[in-house]
Amino acid sequence: MNIKQRLLNIKESLPEHVNLVAVSKTKSKEEIMQAYLAGQRVFGENKVQEMVDKWEQLPKDIQWHMIGHLQRNKVKYMAPFVSLIHGVDSLKLLKEINKQALKVDRVISCLLQVRIAEEETKFGLKTEELEDLIASDTFKKLQAVKVVGLMGMATFTQDTKQIAQEFSHLNTIFESLKSTYPKTENFELTVRSMGMSGDYKIAIQCGSTMVRIGSHIFGSRNYN
Questions:
Q1: How far apart are CA 8 and CA 20, in angstroms?
Q2: Residues with Cβ within 8 Å of residue 137, at least 6 apart in sequence
Q3: Region class of 121: left (phi > 0), else alpha (psi between -120 and 50), else beta
């Protein structure tokens, strides 16, 4: 099966309210164009330089999502074009995104990354840190970012019950924040980004509205 067929199969399996981010990290421009020509417009990258290179060479109606851990010193390179930043895990990073967005006269949409997995390696904010960030005067003054949702990654495990519990926990946090904090110019929760190739079906059952799928579309990752 080729990239186009795999992509269309996944799209057909997704409910209407779930958006697909095709994870194109390590993939060639030719492979991305196969998905593009099959109708995909949203692609996710986890390295800023790789995303910048692809943005420069590929069609300009592609929406690029930054899905990896983001260092503050790299924000300036993608500020002119990035559509959504998934992994915002500190107020410091949000302030830097705001600073760089102001320079290019844009408002950049962001997701706050919540730590739901038991693994020590996963990034993300704890619930109380989320609340502190959203309630802070510093956040309220940021005019060039907009927090539009939450992102979370489940533990890498075969235990589907645990995965479902972690995704459900994110959904509960989402609903709680949405009902507690009124929407403002820079805060309006609509996106629940959870679920990757191995667990996206569970994520959708637990309330996901955005899934990040790579290997099920492009085949296994290239490590070169």
A1: 11
A2: none
A3: alpha
Q: Which residue is listed with tokens 């899905």?
A: 67
Block means of pLDDT (10 residues each) for the chain, 224 residues, are 94 96 96 97 97 98 96 97 97 98 98 88 86 96 98 93 96 96 96 96 97 92 53
Whole-angstrom distance, CA of residue 113 vs CA of residue 84: 12
Give the residue carrying structure tokens 């949409």.
Answer: 109
Strand partners, 63: 42
Other CB atoms within a 10 A radius of the CB of residue 217 amount to 26
Map residue 110 onto helix, strand or coil: strand
End-to-end CA distance of the chain: 23
Q: Is the pTM of this model over 0.90?
A: yes
Q: Quick check: 50 and 44 in contact, CB under 8 A?
A: no
State which amino acid sits at residue 75: V
